[in-house]
Amino acid sequence: MLKFIRLTGLLCVILLPAALFAQDQWLVSKSTHFNIFYKSAPEEMVNELSRKAEEYYDSIGSQFGFNRFNFWTWDNRARIYLFDTQDEYLKSTQSSGWSGGQVEIGVKLIQSYIGAPGFMQDVLPHELAHIVFIEMVGYRNPAVPLWLQEGVATYQQKDIRLIKGDLAEIIRNGQYLSLNALNNFRFEGAGEEQVRLFYAEAYSLVNYLISCFGKDQFVEFCRALRDNRSLPGALSKIYSFKDFNALEEGWKNYILK
To answer: Which residue of 61, 97, 123, 230 sits 20 to 30 Å from the alpha carbon of 114, by its own alpha carbon?
Structure first.
């Protein structure tokens, strides 16, 4: 069992009732790049959330070397809604029971709740990375698979780096998800263990590309995806992988060595 993956939420867009975010129900704390909406959260918690959000905003772009053209200031600030309870969060967002946070990328909206496990350490940077990455490669770019989006986001999590040994055992037993399976993975109908495995492999593939070929080459890969909108083409041009099988074999060898 992959014990070290904290499930953080689905990459999805949910249409929420307008009444849910009626401004008279929420207090708001504003920083340079974020509006944080809350009801009963302690002031010190809101201040810490604001500080962490700004810290991650600065670090995520520089970590991957992404150039920023869309700065989140004034009316373009990202919004974070912090619900009072898990029940209120699940009911309002219709999330899975294991979800600790959710992102709506197109409008820079993140939602979670007070007491969500690892929210500030893992969930928040995960969801922010989704937004920053999609701004880099292009919204609704058909060349960007779900595993790459989640791999980049999960790369931000502090506890994720403990999984290499678990993955090696799964690969040796032939129980891993092939790259073809990753390319076609859907959260709907997947069990919790399959979701954990998906996140683990998604993170591991991104870590493989960055660790073995460098950050600059990964940025060029993302630019190729943005400009040419072809995953096989970008892999071939930037990494010289002739097909998905070549990437999968390289990744497995990296895990098993």
So the answer is: 61
Asked if residue 7 lies in contact with residue 195, where contact means CB atoms within 8 angstroms, the answer is yes
Rounded to two decimals, the pTM is 0.82
Element (H, E) at 48: helix 43-64
**pLDDT at site 100:** 82
Instruction: Give the chain's end-to-end CA distance (angstroms, integer).
Output: 21
Q: How many residues are there in the chain?
A: 257
CB 119, CB 99: distance < 8 Å = no
**Stretch 213-234: mean pLDDT:** 94
Over residues 188-206, the mean pLDDT reads 91
Residue 71: strand, helix, or coil? coil
Residues 6+ apart with CB under 8 A from 49: 36, 41, 80, 82, 120, 124
pLDDT in tens, 226-246: 999 999 999 999 999 999 999
φ, ψ (nearest 5 deg) of residue 145: -75, 160
The domain ranges of the chain are 18-137, 146-256
> How far apart, in whole angstroms, are the C-alpha atoms of residue 136 and residue 37?
26
CATH fold of 18-137: Glutaredoxin (3.40.30)
Q: 78 with 95: CB under 8 angstroms?
A: no
Ranges 39-48, 66-75, 154-163, most confident: 39-48
| AA letter at 176 | Y
User: How many C-beta atoms surround the C-beta of residue 22 within 10 A?
Assistant: 9
